[in-house]
């Protein structure tokens, strides 16, 4: 088990960006769903200015193996009519640059 990985020439932590999260999901429900892919340090859901979910979240796994497995397993899943997509969080930032 590794706690960091080397991606695109840089070390990354086992944090996963998740898009397409159903708006009805709460943070505890999302944590329960994501924990099936590996042990979590935390889950953060982004909210809009009115405090409503934006459909975006970050999951901080305890190790890179769990984060990589979660990315693979989550991408393409359909939850409540929304298709999930997942990437290592720093890989998501690199793709936007």
In short:
The chain is α+β, with helices and mostly antiparallel strands and 97 residues long. It has three helices and eight strands; from the N terminus they run E-E-E-H-E-E-H-E-E-E-H.
Write out key terms for the chains shown.
97 residues; alpha+beta; four-stranded antiparallel β-sheet; two-stranded antiparallel ribbon; 3 helices; 28% helix
Task: Give an overview in words.
This protein has 97 residues and is an alpha+beta fold. Helix content is 28%, strand content 37%. It is built from three helices and eight strands. It has helices at residues 27-34, 64-74, 89-96, and strands spanning 5-7, 10-12, 15-19, 40-47, 53-61, 78-79, 82-83, 85-88. A four-stranded antiparallel sheet has the order 4-5-3-8. A two-stranded antiparallel ribbon has the order 1-2. The protein has a two-stranded antiparallel ribbon with strand order 6-7. Strand 1 (5-7) and strand 2 (10-12) form a beta hairpin. The protein is globular, with a radius of gyration of 13 Å. Mean pLDDT is 86; it is low at 92-97.
